Amino acid sequence: MLAFMLAPFAACMVLVAIHSYLGLHVLAREVIFVDLSLAQMAALGSVIALLAGVAPDSSTAFVSSLLFTAVGAAVFSLTRTSGKGRVPHEAIIGIVYVVASAAAILAADKAPRGAEAIRDVLVGAIIWVTWPTLAQKTVAYGALGLFHYLFRRRFLTISFHPEEAERQGWRIKWWDFWFYISFGLAVTISVPLAGVLLVFTMLVVPATIAFLFTRDLRRMVLISWGSGALASLLGLWLSYVGDLPTGPLIVCMYGLLLAVAGVLRKLGVGSPATARVASPAGTSS
Questions:
Q1: What sign results for the dihedral spanned by CA atoms 85, 35, 276, 142?
Q2: Is 14 a residue whose pLDDT tops 90?
Q3: What digits encode the pLDDT tens for the residues 69-86?
Q4: How far apart are CA 222 and CA 15, in angstroms?
């Protein structure tokens, strides 16, 4: 069991490390379904490449997915509004998702293996990940993590304290574009491995659990990583002993862990949820 499940578990840990942190930004920005929308844009790009006769696991297919994801990132950054806009940002995100989904279905209907490609995008194949593939993705995630670390003050301030960023005159749409590009790149890399459902779950559920218990950023990161690791471990173990589909079972374990966290919060565990996240030091630079 250990030999068979070690690579999938390592893949889950790598995915949780990047997506649980990005999820904190997503919840703070209140753009919960941005991951689904960008993932669907990536899926549309891969199906379009398949329709053009490109192999699904080729570099050309990856570039196609990334280009479509970049279009989504540009749309989301340009349509951001200050405060309550005439059209909620979440509505734009939802529209992009449904249009991309419909277009992917239309393209898949004419593409060879189109139906199988759509299914692979939804559920992924994390159980069959190989160590060389995981090593390549880890390097890419490491580069993304370094990018977010270098610009953490900008991204954190815009996500958690947008009024402060506006007061300092930052070009918020410009920084939003780079945030969504990096976010979309993470999604584009992750979806072929884990599928849309698991990637979305790893993004939203650990961050939601963290938001239930604290507003201290460091504690939020630790709670996100820890809860994601626990849910992934439980899902992989139950998948092995019960001979059940791995991705969907891991998603269910995340849901169960969130329910337990909700009960604990109702019992008074954790600090008040209304506490404010501290502004990152040096945001005036």
A1: negative
A2: yes
A3: 989 988 988 887 665 566
A4: 15
30-67, pLDDT tens digit by residue? 888 888 888 888 888 888 888 888 877 788 888 998 89
CA 80, CA 34: separation in Å to the nearest integer? Answer: 12
The SS3 assignment for 283 reads coil
Rounded-to-integer distance, Cα 167 and Cα 197, Å: 38
Cα–Cα distance, 145 to 281 (Å, whole number): 19
**Of 141, 138, 250, 262, nearest in space to 202 by CA:** 250
C-beta of residue 92 within 8 angstroms of C-beta of residue 31: no
CA dihedral of 158, 163, 167, 172, whole degrees rounded to 10 = 30
First and final CA of the chain: distance in angstroms? 51
Q: Tell me: the pLDDT tens digits for 183-209?
A: 989 988 898 888 888 988 999 999 999
DSSP 151-220: THHHHHHHHH-HHHHHHTT--HHHHHHHHHHHHHHHHHHHHHHHHHHHHHHHHHHHHHHHHHH---HHHH
